[in-house]
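Shipment paperwork, digital attachment
Item: protein structure file
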Amino acid sequence: MNAFKKYLAEFIGTFVLVLVACGVAIVTGCTHWGGYALTALAFGLVIVAMAYSIGNVSGCHINPAVSLAMLISKKMSFKDFIGYVIAQCLGAILGAVCLGVFFTFDCGFGANTLQPGVSVGSGFLAEVVLTCIFVLAILGVTSREAFSKVAGLVIGGSLTLVHLLGIAITGTSVNPARSLGPALFAGGDALSQIWIFILAPLVGGALAAVIWMILDKKEK
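Attachment content:
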């Protein structure tokens, strides 16, 4: 597959994720259980839509943590990893710009921050664990051709699941690009805490890759 097409697909997918899912977070405000549920569902449905549209082009990572797991699992080259991450971050930034145009540039952008009463340690751990769960589901469902028809549904459902818990803790990132784009324009806590939402998901993605390689190791 032409490298440019793969990178373009990742750019588009991450753009749509931030535009639509973070847009729903802005609309609902995520201040009650209904807002939590709708936002979680929005993130999951975007993944389903993108998996069945750009999945055959790039694999629909639209998340540096997923790409890192694929790199560690030797399912992609280092060159493609770098290309994917750059494309994902640029797509997220453009998505955030569009949110600013749609809702004004003080809309909050659906940015990730530690929620009231949540410590740095707790938030970091939550992002590691939730990302690990999400990426582990991806590695498992994409490991067998027999699962290909339901892969998008499983991945989207998994993202919805981790959001249902994580929104009340960190707003749920599990995706460095998704956090970076909105944080650049939201500023404040979102920008000062961005290191959590970049580093923790990458640690979670790497951990998922190691766990999957252990589980999937063929007996000699």
